[in-house]
């Protein structure tokens, strides 16, 4: 029986076959085979088929897609780049930058003088103490599967979210900082809102903070996410802000205008006098180091006996 060259198949049949081949295999192993395969793999129709087959669609079904190939890869890579965001692995994956007071702790929802989280799948949270508590993660984008051309040419939106709450019986100060950095840890873009001050006898409601980095400079290779805070009553124990369900997601959208906050905390936000100043720098090993500059404080107070 005479052999048949695969290239003798109709182009539409070849396209259908290619939709079942992993995307990276298509680009790295299949595309260089011949000019026919190269042209078919570069075709918009192939990547549109693969996107629809894998359930990758835009938020609004009729929203135009500028580049279906890039859209496919961004959708396939889309996930929360922060590990252990909901404290299910205790403090695992987090770097402790500041561990003041009685140190970081993990508690189960809703906690004393707390409220349930909006998403019932979230069961735990991290809680801070009377001294400044900060923790962070450094995301290596190339290690997460994003390559230089994708990051520098298309610069997809980077969406950052965090959730925080106070105890109803104690005031607190919540801090958040997110930085986009180059391969050698030069900061290219930053989001660091003023500390959120929540007063004592509040509703203990969980609040989401969301920010989108758009049209940032080329060269982003790392994302530093840091959050935490402390209580404002200076009580021994764990009366500071509670945080959970944090996320850093590379979106499939590409916006060419500066990012802006997509939500504002409902609680009063202001810079409190005497709050520490945080300076970030990087040592010779390439790992982030945090220096905390603050005034010395007096000894802690005990919470009321009926707390």
UniProtKB/TrEMBL annotation:
Residue ranges annotated for the F-box domain, each copy included: 3-50
Top-level taxonomic group: Eukaryota
InterPro entries noted in UniProt: F-box-assoc_dom, F-box-like_dom_sf, F-box_dom, F-box_only, Galactose-bd-like_sf
Domain (FBA) ranges: 71-252
SMART domains: FBA, FBOX
PANTHER family xref list: F-BOX ONLY PROTEIN 6 (PTHR12125:SF12), F-BOX ONLY PROTEIN 6-LIKE PROTEIN (PTHR12125)
Protein name: F-box only protein 6 isoform X3
Protein's organism: Echinops telfairi
């Amino acid at each position: 029986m005479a052999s048949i060259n695969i290239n003798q198949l109709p182009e539409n049949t070849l396209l259908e076959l290619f939709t079942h081949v992993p995307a990276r295999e298509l680009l790295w192993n299949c595309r260089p085979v011949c000019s026919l395969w190269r042209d078919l793999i570069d075709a918009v129709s192939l990547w549109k088929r693969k996107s629809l087959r894998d359930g990758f669609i835009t938020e609004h079904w009729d929203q135009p897609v500028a580049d279906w190939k890039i859209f496919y890869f961004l959708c396939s890579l889309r996930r929360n780049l922060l590990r252990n965001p909901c404290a299910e692995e205790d403090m695992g994956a987090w770097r402790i930058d500041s561990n003041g007071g009685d140190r970081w702790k993990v508690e189960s929802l809703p906690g004393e003088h707390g409220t349930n989280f909006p998403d019932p799948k979230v069961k735990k949270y991290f809680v801070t103490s009377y001294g400044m508590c900060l923790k962070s993660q450094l995301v290596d984008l190339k290690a997460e599967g994003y390559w230089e051309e994708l990051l520098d040419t298309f610069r997809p939106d980077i969406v950052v979210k965090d959730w925080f709450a106070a105890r109803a019986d104690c005031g607190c100060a919540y801090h958040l900082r997110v930085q986009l950095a180059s391969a050698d840890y030069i900061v290219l873009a930053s989001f660091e809102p003023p500390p959120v001050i929540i007063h004592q006898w509040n509703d203990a409601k969980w609040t989401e903070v969301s920010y989108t980095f758009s049209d940032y400079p080329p060269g982003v290779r790392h994302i530093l996410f840091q959050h935490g805070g402390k209580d404002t009553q200076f009580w021994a124990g764990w009366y500071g802000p509670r945080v959970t369900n944090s996320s850093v997601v590379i979106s499939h959208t590409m916006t060419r205008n500066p990012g802006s906050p997509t939500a504002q905390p409902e609680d009063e936000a202001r810079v409190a006098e005497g709050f520490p100043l945080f300076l970030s720098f990087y040592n010779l090993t390439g790992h982030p180091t945090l220096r905390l500059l603050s005034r010395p404080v007096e000894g802690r107070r005990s919470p009321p006996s009926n707390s």
